[in-house]
Write a structure and sequence with these properties.
The complex is a heterodimer of chains A (467) and B (202). Chain A is mostly helical and 467 residues long. Chain A is built from 15 helices and no strands. Chain B is 83% helix and 0% strand. The chains are: A mainly alpha (467), B mainly alpha (202).
């Protein structure tokens, strides 16, 4: 690494991976509970497992984004981080608060957790993905503000590039939209309406800026293509992401009590949402074609390129499958949504996190890249995880189709009840569980690649001297 | 009969590569923007096919004279922008700055008229929720107006940077000015489709 303060990224990456493992383990529990309803009941009921699975996902991605930022900002600004100490302090605060919250979910009944954490005084709990106790939410807000302050101070004293400008814009957006987690109106319609300002405007808005910036950074470093070219692509991608993504929020407003015109806005702008992801894919391939150097870190390039393909499929194609209002009328809240959610989160965000970790981790340990053996294991793990996730997606799509066919398309008299439909899907859930185990094997291989990298460290090229 | 030399020089001039005005990235952006408008207009055509009467009665409540005035403003703005680019190619950077400011001023007049038109319709009790027609009218024209504002911003940024001497050479001036003007013409072009569809077609 070129700057000593880039080392702040290390604990963030390591902790992100730890939480990722936790997320996948809870995913396996959930996959089993779909088949054996009382598996691990009453210790870990389905609703708690689901909460832990989704919350761990969000938190590990936040850790990975923060780690990525701490790694790339000094290099982009060509200056040391404003305060590495603040970076480490915030890591511990965030990590401890995160662990306590997860333990709270697992050890205390949710209603009791709400009582213990004073939810009555400032009620924000009890909403999907925003289940965190209010004090944890305040903690997240403070950590993010401290983090952005540290990054802003660094950017102000250093070089301003399009990559760090886009990244910081994305991070500020992330902080701003988090504020809607504290807005909890009595009206359920209003509640859901603004709830999406956190959920949708994060993942289909500002997070795409963060994704774009990290992807651009990796491609600049690994292909050696002119920064000017990369920046133009980045501008185009984020402009399209914002134009389509902001108004695309409408696809969540179809049947929740919001005005009827959202049927039009949501359908029209969601139809454009695959475009920025398609452009991201073109961007990655075009940069690879124009590359001026053969970077030895093949694993990082595999993750980065794979990320654009899987994001296009998961966020773009699987999103568009059900964002047209007349389609969504039948597909709303079926397993098709779960199919889209899994592939989109994995493709767009988990894979970019692994791409930057793959690029940065060896450099943080004094090597240009991992040894060829370690990279081979890592590239295999990328394939195993990607194919398993595609299998999960296709199977959940199949499950969703069964739900639509039996439960949604027939008239009231002919429609099958929810639980009877679940029985009809059982064989698909079994296959999904097997695919989930496949994914866990892929994750195990990925972690094993770090062990191989460590034991074959001597065979990895030493870090080039900083210019 | 032509001499071989003159034929050759003619061929040379014919074979001169046709250059894309402005940056390719800007053209990608323009095409993406046009796609968004195309989807909006396509949906509007679909809605019109279904609720023809609602559209006819809705159109009768609009103010076509305001639409016509705005068409003139935008076309005048485009004239200034195109002329500015032309003059800039001859090296007259002051004319570029002046022309882009005038074009942006036309945009501002457009926005003024549009906002007062909205005011009149609101006063008559129409809004985004009144009917599918009013949704399309308000939303599409507002979305277009947002693009007028973006276009104005682009023109003013290029004018300001040109005035500050931030473009290293003539080629950079050409690239920036043509890109900005191309975007502005796109905004103009969309309006030329919107105006007859929303105000004129009974």
């Amino acid at each position: 690494m070129k700057y000593a303060s880039q080392a702040v990224a290390k604990p963030y990456f390591a902790f992100a991976m730890l939480l990722f493992v936790g997320q996948i383990l809870f995913g396996l529990i959930l996959g089993t509970q779909y088949i054996i309803g009382d598996f691990l009941f009453p210790e870990i009921p389905f609703n708690v497992a689901r909460m832990v699975h989704t919350n761990l996902l969000i938190v590990w991605l936040l850790f990975a984004f923060m780690g990525a930022t701490y790694y790339l900002i000094p290099e982009e600004t060509q200056t040391e981080l404003w305060s590495p100490k603040l970076g480490y302090a915030l890591f511990w605060i965030f990590a401890i608060a995160g662990v306590l919250t997860i333990l709270g979910y697992l050890l205390v009944p949710y209603a009791r957790l709400a009582e213990l954490t004073g939810n009555d005084y400032f009620p924000t709990m009890g909403r999907e993905f925003l289940e965190q106790p209010t004090i944890t939410k305040v903690g997240i807000a403070l950590v993010v503000v401290g983090f952005i302050f540290n990054i802003l101070m660094t950017v102000l004293k250093g070089r301003k590039t399009v990559v760090n400008m886009v990244l910081i814009t994305g991070l500020i957006g992330l902080a701003v939209f988090w504020l809607f987690a504290f807005y909890n109106p009595v009206s359920l319609v209003m509640d859901k309406y603004f709830w999406w300002w956190v959920v949708h405007l994060w993942v289909e808005g500002v997070w795409e800026l963060i994704l774009g910036a990290i992807l651009a950074f990796i491609l600049i470093k690994t292909t050696g293509v002119d920064r000017e070219v990369v920046e133009k692509w980045l501008y185009l991608i984020i402009a399209m992401a914002l134009i389509s993504g902001i108004l695309g929020t409408g696809h969540h407003y179809f049947f929740i009590g919001a005005p009827e015109y959202w049927l039009w806005i949501g359908s029209i702008f969601s139809a454009i949402e695959p475009l920025p992801f398609f452009m991201m894919m073109l961007f990655a391939f075009s940069m690879l074609r124009q590359r001026r150097r053969e970077h030895p870190n093949k694993a990082a390039v595999t993750w980065a390129v794979g990320c654009t393909i899987m994001a296009f499929l998961g966020a773009g194609v699987w999103g568009f499958l059900h964002t047209l209002a007349p389609v969504n009328y039948y597909t709303h809240g079926t397993q098709l949504t779960a199919a889209h959610g899994h592939l989109a989160f994995f493709g767009a965000y988990a894979m970019i996190a692994m791409a930057i970790i793959s690029y940065a981790w060896p450099k943080l340990h004094g090597r240009e890249c991992s040894s060829p053996q370690a990279q081979r294991v890592e590239i295999w793990s990328c394939w195993v995880m990607s194919i398993s996730m595609l299998a999960i997606t296709l199977l959940l799509t199949w499950a969703g189709w069964i739900q639509i066919d039996l439960q949604r398309l027939p008239g009231d008299a002919g429609a099958l009840g929810y639980m009877q439909t679940q029985d009809a899907i059982m064989h698909v859930y079994w296959m999904r569980l097997i695919a989930g185990i496949g994914f866990t094997v892929g994750l195990g291989m990925y972690l094993y690649s770090f062990v191989v990298a460590r034991s074959t460290r001597e065979q990895a090229p030493a870090l080039a001297v900083a210019q | 009969m032509h001499s071989p030399e003159s034929v050759l020089s003619q061929a040379d001039s014919l074979e001169q590569p046709r250059q894309l005005p402005g940056d390719l990235a800007m053209w990608c952006f323009i095409l993406a923007e046009l796609l968004a408008f195309l989807l909006l207009l396509g949906s509007m055509a679909f809605a019109r096919g279904h609720w023809g009467e609602m559209f006819s009665t809705g159109i009768a409540t609009l103010h076509p004279e305001a639409g016509l005035i705005n068409t003139v403003f935008l076309l005048t703005g485009s004239y200034f922008a195109a002329r500015a680019v032309h003059r800039a190619q001859a090296g007259d950077h002051r004319a570029l700055v002046r022309g882009f400011i005038l074009a942006a001023a036309c945009g501002l007049l457009y926005v003024g008229v549009k906002v007062s038109e909205y005011g009149m319709l609101f006063a008559d009790g129409y809004n985004l929720r009144s009917s599918t027609f009013y949704f399309f009218y308000f939303f599409t024209t507002f979305f277009h107006m947002a693009h007028v504002l973006i276009g104005m911003l682009i023109l003013l940024v290029v004018a300001w940077r040109c005035r500050q001497g931030q473009y290293a050479n003539q080629e950079k001036v050409r690239m920036a000015s043509e890109s900005a003007a191309s975007y502005w013409h796109m905004v103009d072009l969309v309006w030329l489709v919107l105006f007859p569809l929303l105000y004129v077609l009974p």
